[in-house]
Every structure is written in C-alpha cells, then in structure tokens.
Amino acid sequence: MAIIEATGPDAADADPTKTWHKNVCILCGNNCGVEVRLDGREITRVRGNKTHVASKGYTCEKALRINHYQNARGRLTSPMRRMEDGTYEPTDWDTAIREVAAGLRGVGERHGPDKLMYYGGGGQGNHLVGLYGAGTRNALGITRRSNALAQEKTGEAWVEGRMFGTHTHGEFADAEVSIFLGKNPWHSHGFDEARRVLKEIAADDARTMIVIDPRRTETADLADHHLAVRPGSDAHLLTALLAVVVQEDLLAHDWLQENANGVDETVALFADVSVDDYAAHCGIEPHEIRSVARRIASAESVSVFEDLGVEMAPHSTLVSWLHRALWVLTGNYGKPGTASAHSSMVPLFSYGATGRESVDPVTGGPIVSGLIPCNEIAEGILSDHPERSRGMFIESANPVHSLAGSARFRDAMRACEFTVVIDIAMTETAKEADWVLPASSQYEKCETTFFGVGFPDNTITIRPPLLEPLDGTLPEAEIHSRLVRELGAITDDDLGSLHAAAAEGLESYAAAFMAAATENPILGAVGGVVMYETLGPTLPDGMAAAAPLWFSAQQAAMRYPDQVRAAGHEGEGTALGDALFNAMITNPDGVVFTRHQHGDSFDLLRTPDQKINVHLPELEGELATLSAGAVSHTSDEFPFVLAAGERRSFTANTIMRDPSWRKKDPEGALRLHPDDAAGLGVETGDRVRISTAGGTAVAVAEVNDSMQPGMVSLPNGMGLGYAPAGGEDELTGVAPNELTSIDWKDPIVGTPWHKHVPARLEPVER
Ligand SMILES: Nc1nc2c(c(=O)[nH]1)N[C@H]1C(S)=C(S)[C@@H](COP(=O)(O)OP(=O)(O)OC[C@H]3O[C@@H](n4cnc5c(=O)[nH]c(N)nc54)[C@H](O)[C@@H]3O)O[C@H]1N2
Ligand SMILES: Nc1nc2c(c(=O)[nH]1)N[C@H]1C(S)=C(S)[C@@H](COP(=O)(O)OP(=O)(O)OC[C@H]3O[C@@H](n4cnc5c(=O)[nH]c(N)nc54)[C@H](O)[C@@H]3O)O[C@H]1N2
Ligand code: SF4
Ligand SMILES: [Mo]
Q1: Ligand 3, pocket-test mutation among 32, 56, 67, most atoms within 8 A of CB
Q2: Which of 58, 405, 493, 665 lies at 20 to 30 Å from 369 by C-alpha?
Q3: Whose CA is nearest to atom 3 of ligand 2?
Q4: 397 lines ligand 1 (CB under 6 A)
Q5: CA distance linking residue 198 with residue 172, whole number of Å
Q6: Structural element, H or E, at residue 380
Q7: Domain range for residue 117?
Q8: Does residue 187 sit in the same domain as residue 332?
Q9: pTM for this structure?
Q10: What digits encode the pLDDT tens for the residues 214-224?
C-alpha cells in the first residue's frame, strides 16, 4: 500500500522528515486538523493545519503529544488466545479468525444470537470501526449492543427525542449568551476552536458567558457569571431560573405560539415555585438568579452546552429537560447563535425510537437509541435470567476501565462463555477476554468520525493513513471482512458483478449495489464489508476502508440535496452523492458536506408537526420532589462528594496509555479545598486514601482553591497499566471506576452519577 502523498509547501522537499502530512488529532471528539512530520515511524513534529475546514489551525497542547499514542510500548502485534492458566498465547490470523468466528457462532447456536452483546464501535477519533462492526454483528444476528454514549448521553437523547425528535447543537461562536452547564470547554472542548471562542466571548462586553459548575474552572475564570452551585443541585437552580422567567413573564409568547407545543402546561409548573427557597437549595443568591434569568430572556440568542457535570449527577435526565425548557420558553431555537437540529453523515443516535424506548428483557432498563444502559450490562450478565447475554464482542473501547464498577465488569466478562476484544493494546478489558485481536492504530489506516454536529455548516474529515500498519496488525475493515467471510455471509461468487460494476465507475456501482442487495439481502446487511471488498480497491491508495462512506454520502445527498449543493457539491440524484463522496475521500482538510439556512431548523425537527414539544409529563413527578430541598447523599461514613473523572490538561479517556505523555501532574492528583486539606492535615504532594461504597484507593493530594469545600475530584483516564521498559505493567494514578458502583445511577436512563460519589478521605502515613 502506498501512503497518500503529503501536500503543502514542503511536499516536494527531498528530505522525507521535512514533509508535512495532514491528519487529525484523535484525543478528543473535536478531531482538530493537524500536520505532522515523520522520521521513520516516529511522529516528530505536530502543528495545527491552517487549511482544515473546521479547526483552521487550532489545536490544544494535547495534539503535540500524539506520538505517545502512535508509538507507545506494548502495542499488540499478533492475535492472542487465553490459555487455561490465564496466560496469552500468540496465534496467527487464520487461526484467530476461524476460532473467533466459531466461538461467537457457538454462543449463538447454544443460546440464540440475541444472547451475544456488542460493545463499543469507535472512540474519539475512529468511527469506521462501527460501520464494519455492524457487518460482523449482522452476519451473526447480534442485536444487543451498547457503547459509552449509554453512560453519558442517553438522558439527553431521551429528552431531545421527545422535544425535537432529533439532536440539537448550539452556535457558541455566535451566541450573545453562552451557558456551560457542568461543562469545562477550556479542557474538554466540544466545539471548534474552543479556547479562542471562550476568550473572544470574555473580551466582548456585548456578550455574556455563564458557567454553572461547583468548581471555579478555567472556563469559569473567563465567565461573566460563575454560578458555583452546590454539587448535584443544578435542577434546583434551573427550576429557579425558569420560575423567574415565568413569574416575571419573560416568555417569547408570539414565537412560542407559532413554534412550540405544551407551553401552558410547562409554564404552570413554575408559576408557584419560590425562587428564594430554590436559591437556598442550590447555594446561589436569589438576586444573581434573577439577573441571570433576565439576561437570558433579553438576549437575541442563547446557546447552552450540557455535559458530564450534570449528565453524571443527580437529576441528570430532569436537568437535560429543564435547561431546554428555559431556552425554548425564551425563544432560543433556530436563529443564529441559538441551538438548531443539524444534518448527520451517519447519525450516532437513532431518535426515531425515543419516546417509545424498548426495555431490556434482562434488567428491565430502558433501551435508548438501541443501547443497553452501561450500568446494567454487568448486572444483566451476572444474573441468572434466562435471557442474559452469554458472549461479548468488544472493540475500540475499554469498558473494564471506563464503566462504573470495574470489578463487576471483569466478573461479567469472565462469566461469559466467549469474549473477544479488538484493540491496539493489552488493555484492562483485553486482559479479561478469551481472544484479543490486534488492530492497526488510527494513524495506520484510513479513518473518520461522525461527531459532526455543525450548523449551518457541517463538516466531515476522512484521513488517509500516515503509516503502514504495524506488522502483525490489521485495520478493522480487514478484520471484519475476514470474519464475515468466515461466518459464510458472503462468498467470491456473490461479489463478482459488484467488482465489475466498480471497475466501470460509481454510477454503475450504484445500480449494481442496489440490485445485489435487493436480490440477496445479506449483502446489504454486511454492506460495509461488501463495499470495502468491491468498491475499496478502486479508491485512491490507502482509502479502501472509506468505501462504505460512499453509501453514507448517497444518503446525505438524498436527505439534504439542496444543502449538499449549497456546500459546493454538484449534481442530481446519485451523481450528487458521488460528487460528495469524491470530495470527501480526496480532501484531508475535511469538507463542508451540508450548508443550511437557519430557516431549515424547523424542517430538521422530527416531531410529528415539526414544532418543539416543551412539556414532558414523565418528568413532572421528579420535578415535584425538588420542593423538599436538595437531597444530601453524603453521610458521616462518606462526608465528601467525589467527582470521579475530571477532564484536565493531559487526560484523554484511555487513549494514551504511556503516562509520560503528561507534562505535569504525573499521577493525576486528587484535588481538594484548602479548608478540607487543613481539616485532614494534608498538604499538596501527600498521599490520601479515598474510600467509597465501591472501593478504595490511594491518591496524591493537590490542595486547590478552585474546589468547593466538601467536594474533591480525580481525573479520568488514569490508573492504566503500562510497562515503560517492557515486562510487567505498572499503574500510574487512580482508575476512577475502581471507586464507582453500578447501582449509583439515574432512575430513568440508568446513566452513572460519577460526578457525585459519596467518599471518605484519610491521610496516609508516610
Ligand atoms: N482533556 C480532555 N478532553 C476531553 C476528554 C478527556 O478525556 N480529556 N474526554 C472527552 C469526552 S469523552 C467527554 S464526554 C467530554 C466531557 O467534558 P466535560 O463534561 O466538560 O468534562 P468533565 O471535566 O468530566 O466535567 C465537567 C465539569 O463538571 C463539573 N461538575 C461536577 N459536579 C457537578 C455538578 O453537580 N453540577 C455541575 N453543574 N457541574 C458539576 C466539574 O467540576 C467539571 O468542571 O470531554 C471530552 N474532552
Ligand atoms: N468514572 C468515570 N468514568 C468515565 C468517565 C468519567 O467522567 N468518570 N467518562 C466516561 C466517558 S464520557 C466516556 S466517552 C468513556 C470512554 O471510554 P471508552 O468508550 O472505553 O473509550 P476510550 O477510553 O476512548 O477507549 C478506547 C479504546 O480504544 C483503543 N483504541 C485506540 N485506537 C484504536 C483503534 O484504532 N482501533 C481499536 N480497535 N481500538 C483502538 C484504546 O486503546 C482504548 O482501549 O469513559 C467513561 N468513563
Ligand atoms: S485534544 Fe485538543 S487538539 Fe486534539 S482534537 Fe481535542 S481540542 Fe483538538
Ligand atoms: Mo464521553
């Protein structure tokens, strides 16, 4: 395979180490465009790609360290089979594919394919995995699945499905009032050029930034209003804000008349709420609540970003609704600087099903967007329910580390009859699996993500490989293609006509693919693999794995033809989809795939009458409980609130296993307020034991006055095993989910309350 040629001013330079190659940073969902220099397989330099369509040269400090991902020690270089004694034996790929296919099929034959669960399918930088994983899933008849979205975003999806029938996103770069609710974009990003945008808002007197966060975060430092709520009391604050809007009649009456349903019922819920009482419950002065509510109501545009600080805290689903009620009642949807529904290349959520979620037959939990609640996976497998899952297929995810109650997930994997993990490293999850298949890294293959939520412009970036696959590894496209063939879903004979059509060009291919899939539906069901095998070889070097995106481009062109044309792609019908696809696979700067007008925002709603449904009666009961005050979850035994999994300067989920990538705070300190530190007799650098109902650990302390008294935090992604000099893995820092438990979760969608874990601290004697 030839590596795609680099472009740019240095491309012609004779010295290959001086050539800049375009790609993206894979450390968070923003996927900022970068240019890198290579020396052999080392990434020696990284800079922002100024011509990238979305990030325009922006990166944060983390991008400069991606070589620690690409060239970490301990990459897997052959399939591994667990032996009776618990050690792993390297095998060849043919054996691995044969035995993995047989193992999964065996579970299906003994218990039914619905007793197999698929977990994962993509991380912060790689979503082609999911398209290919769907092939193997369909070849086996696997319907049960989950991924990390079902431990953070399913509450939001439950609410948005009912209110909008789809996902919405704010325009923070243009909003007059930007609100960050349990979100620290300075570190976690979540929209393009986050730090630049935050600084711009802070410097502009006409614009206002409101940060709702118990901690004085880096973002809060830039805010006009930092509402330092008591941990877990956001529902009280939002109810008080709504009460001011309703009681002072600050509603957008005419706009609501035209665009929303359920307004009167919603307004009635806040008419008698005592702002003063609720202010006391959340710890914010009533006058500040009133002034913030008036600022929101008087603004031309308001955008709100909710994130883990509320999605992983008490009343999470309720909060997801309350803030949306606030911005809808004040008329903030579908205008510049407000939220809008948006286009998707491949939707990450299926909102069609929301509002009528199915129920997990094993645990009775709600299945939002087809995803089993993460907190219920282990519980289900470890039950004696006849419907429980008996096998697991996990890829590009590290659920033993990332899901609540690590010990339970380990037990659940061991309780399965067959488990397989596809990863680049021997992760905490891989170490529990019967089989581990080594994937090529994200810089050794073509990849992309479907995180694009832009409006009015939406973009996608498909990256060519930077490097050849590490010896012994395979890209997921190839792994799944081999599995699908081993499972007998496709044969060479099935693909003959498609190979011929692909050689003739995309137009012939479209007709041939539709005909083949109609005649033989399994070809459609494993379509990603079929396209990889037949269309892939005709694509530019290194881009074969992008083949299924041809179908995605066709669907985007069908759904949003005018907007795809407005984005500069030409043609009608399948020719438009072909033009879009060609632009996508030849443009490492990324492409705008849709360009909307704000008038489209209501057309994009998927509610029956394309109005916003502001009233969610299912949540009224929980709302009513707030009047009794904020429930305290701490106790004499566990007097602190632990926020388990904070985003910091050098954290990136579990993507970076090499701890030396962190330039500061090597272990990921436990932050605590100076008063609490004094009470415990602890100073920065001392060791403290932290205990919760879920477990206990020792962390290094950092006395930090941005914390509230009574609240402590640990970073996410720490406590990973890594062997810097080979040999046995060493752990650095605390793995947060050794401290969390699967029972501590939202009552509606089952998402964990990781930001609000009752905990006890004790100094550790030196
Ligand atoms: N550097 C870095 N960036 C990342 C990631 C990473 O690992 N590292 N991960 C990415 C991923 S997967 C995600 S989902 C996002 C998450 O991004 P964020 O949600 O922004 O990240 P967190 O730091 O987990 O939580 C945000 C804030 O919630 C606050 N918080 C805690 N308790 C409460 C509460 O009761 N109420 C309120 N209002 N706030 C509270 C915390 O103080 C914290 O500042 O980040 C993405 N970006
Ligand atoms: N306590 C607590 N727990 C949390 C959080 C928290 O705030 N607190 N945050 C949660 C959130 S929001 C999220 S999104 C999850 C994230 O947790 P996960 O969904 O488990 O995702 P990652 O940690 O990103 O793990 C990705 C895995 O993919 C592997 N990988 C990297 N590149 C490739 C590749 O090209 N192919 C394959 N097959 N594998 C690859 C990595 O080695 C790693 O094992 O963690 C959650 N866990
Ligand atoms: S970690 Fe930083 S550079 Fe990398 S994608 Fe996220 S915001 Fe961009
Ligand atoms: Mo996440």
Answers
A1: 32
A2: 405
A3: 402
A4: no
A5: 9
A6: helix 377-381
A7: 80-147+371-438
A8: yes
A9: 0.97
A10: 999 999 999 99
